[in-house]
Amino acid sequence: MALIECPSCTKRISDKSTSCPFCDFKLAGLSPQDQDREWQRIQQEKKDKLLSQSMLALIIAIGAFAYMYLAQPYPESWQAQVAYGLIIVSVIWFVANRIRLLFIKKKRR
Protein backbone atom coordinates (compact mmCIF):
# COMPACT_ATOMS: atom_id res chain seq x y z
CA MET A 1 0.00 0.00 0.00
CA ALA A 2 1.43 3.34 -1.09
CA LEU A 3 0.37 6.87 -0.31
CA ILE A 4 -0.63 9.10 -3.20
CA GLU A 5 -1.73 12.70 -3.40
CA CYS A 6 -5.42 13.40 -4.00
CA PRO A 7 -5.82 15.38 -7.25
CA SER A 8 -8.51 17.55 -5.67
CA CYS A 9 -7.40 18.45 -2.14
CA THR A 10 -3.70 17.40 -2.39
CA LYS A 11 -3.85 15.43 0.86
CA ARG A 12 -2.07 12.09 1.15
CA ILE A 13 -4.35 9.06 0.82
CA SER A 14 -4.00 5.34 0.21
CA ASP A 15 -3.68 4.20 -3.38
CA LYS A 16 -6.20 1.44 -2.62
CA SER A 17 -9.04 3.79 -1.65
CA THR A 18 -11.87 4.35 -4.14
CA SER A 19 -12.48 7.94 -3.05
CA CYS A 20 -10.71 10.55 -0.99
CA PRO A 21 -11.94 10.51 2.64
CA PHE A 22 -11.31 14.27 2.93
CA CYS A 23 -13.05 15.67 -0.17
CA ASP A 24 -14.97 12.66 -1.63
CA PHE A 25 -13.02 12.83 -4.89
CA LYS A 26 -13.65 9.58 -6.80
CA LEU A 27 -10.45 7.80 -7.75
CA ALA A 28 -11.43 4.24 -8.68
CA GLY A 29 -11.53 3.40 -12.38
CA LEU A 30 -11.26 6.94 -13.66
CA SER A 31 -9.15 7.97 -16.60
CA PRO A 32 -7.09 11.16 -16.29
CA GLN A 33 -9.74 13.04 -18.29
CA ASP A 34 -12.49 11.77 -15.97
CA GLN A 35 -10.44 12.75 -12.92
CA ASP A 36 -9.99 16.23 -14.38
CA ARG A 37 -13.74 16.58 -15.01
CA GLU A 38 -14.49 15.36 -11.49
CA TRP A 39 -11.99 17.86 -10.05
CA GLN A 40 -13.62 20.68 -12.03
CA ARG A 41 -17.07 19.59 -10.80
CA ILE A 42 -15.92 19.68 -7.16
CA GLN A 43 -14.34 23.11 -7.65
CA GLN A 44 -17.56 24.41 -9.22
CA GLU A 45 -19.58 23.10 -6.25
CA LYS A 46 -17.25 24.96 -3.87
CA LYS A 47 -17.61 28.17 -5.91
CA ASP A 48 -21.40 27.86 -5.99
CA LYS A 49 -21.56 27.35 -2.23
CA LEU A 50 -19.40 30.41 -1.57
CA LEU A 51 -21.44 32.53 -3.98
CA SER A 52 -24.65 31.50 -2.23
CA GLN A 53 -23.20 32.40 1.16
CA SER A 54 -21.98 35.74 -0.24
CA MET A 55 -25.44 36.56 -1.53
CA LEU A 56 -27.02 35.65 1.82
CA ALA A 57 -24.58 37.93 3.64
CA LEU A 58 -25.32 40.73 1.20
CA ILE A 59 -29.09 40.32 1.64
CA ILE A 60 -28.71 40.45 5.43
CA ALA A 61 -26.62 43.63 5.20
CA ILE A 62 -29.09 45.30 2.85
CA GLY A 63 -32.01 44.28 5.07
CA ALA A 64 -30.35 45.70 8.19
CA PHE A 65 -29.44 48.91 6.37
CA ALA A 66 -33.01 49.25 5.05
CA TYR A 67 -34.33 48.78 8.58
CA MET A 68 -32.00 51.51 9.86
CA TYR A 69 -33.09 53.85 7.06
CA LEU A 70 -36.84 53.21 7.25
CA ALA A 71 -37.41 52.67 10.99
CA GLN A 72 -34.79 55.14 12.20
CA PRO A 73 -34.50 53.72 15.73
CA TYR A 74 -32.79 55.70 18.46
CA PRO A 75 -29.01 55.19 18.26
CA GLU A 76 -28.85 53.90 21.85
CA SER A 77 -31.74 51.42 21.46
CA TRP A 78 -31.21 47.67 21.23
CA GLN A 79 -32.84 47.66 17.76
CA ALA A 80 -30.18 50.02 16.43
CA GLN A 81 -27.40 48.02 18.07
CA VAL A 82 -28.70 44.78 16.52
CA ALA A 83 -28.95 46.42 13.09
CA TYR A 84 -25.40 47.82 13.38
CA GLY A 85 -24.13 44.42 14.44
CA LEU A 86 -25.87 42.67 11.54
CA ILE A 87 -24.46 45.15 9.06
CA ILE A 88 -20.91 44.74 10.37
CA VAL A 89 -21.03 40.93 10.62
CA SER A 90 -22.63 40.43 7.23
CA VAL A 91 -20.19 42.77 5.46
CA ILE A 92 -17.24 40.95 7.04
CA TRP A 93 -18.82 37.61 6.07
CA PHE A 94 -19.33 38.85 2.48
CA VAL A 95 -15.74 40.08 2.14
CA ALA A 96 -14.33 36.86 3.65
CA ASN A 97 -16.33 34.73 1.21
CA ARG A 98 -15.18 36.81 -1.75
CA ILE A 99 -11.55 36.40 -0.66
CA ARG A 100 -12.05 32.64 -0.28
CA LEU A 101 -13.56 32.60 -3.77
CA LEU A 102 -10.46 34.32 -5.15
CA PHE A 103 -8.23 31.67 -3.57
CA ILE A 104 -10.31 28.90 -5.12
CA LYS A 105 -10.06 30.55 -8.53
CA LYS A 106 -6.28 30.89 -8.17
CA LYS A 107 -5.84 27.24 -7.18
CA ARG A 108 -5.69 25.55 -10.55
CA ARG A 109 -3.98 22.38 -11.59
TrEMBL record:
The chain crosses the membrane at residues 50-70, 82-103. Keywords: Membrane, Transmembrane, Transmembrane helix. This is Zinc ribbon domain-containing protein. The lineage of its organism: Bacteria, Pseudomonadati, Pseudomonadota, Gammaproteobacteria, Alteromonadales.
